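Check out a protein:
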Amino acid sequence: MAQKTEGIQQLLIAEKKATERVNEARKRKALRIKAAKKEGDAEILAFKNEKENQYKQYEQEILGKKSDSEAQIQVETNKKIKELDAMMKQNRGKALGSILKLLFDIDVKLHENVKL
């Protein structure tokens, strides 16, 4: 009987050691996962920063082109406004004459229903 209890004791000790090893393995696994997560977060942050820098550089290129385009459009608009102003001043007399002619050139005649 002593041998049986001794065998049981050995089994209990072996089970306890196995449980400890499993717990240690779980702890090591958790540490590896945490380390991998930190490493992954660092890589993600580096990638994100790189892409943000690329985007900012691209944005600066586009905005630089956009401001050049806006300046060119403004110059062309001012030129067109000056041309239209000059044309208006040049043709103001003709237009006013045409309008006055239409207003004051009245042909007076009696209505067809009027009997003399």
The chain has one helix and no strands. The two ends are 155 Å apart (CA to CA).
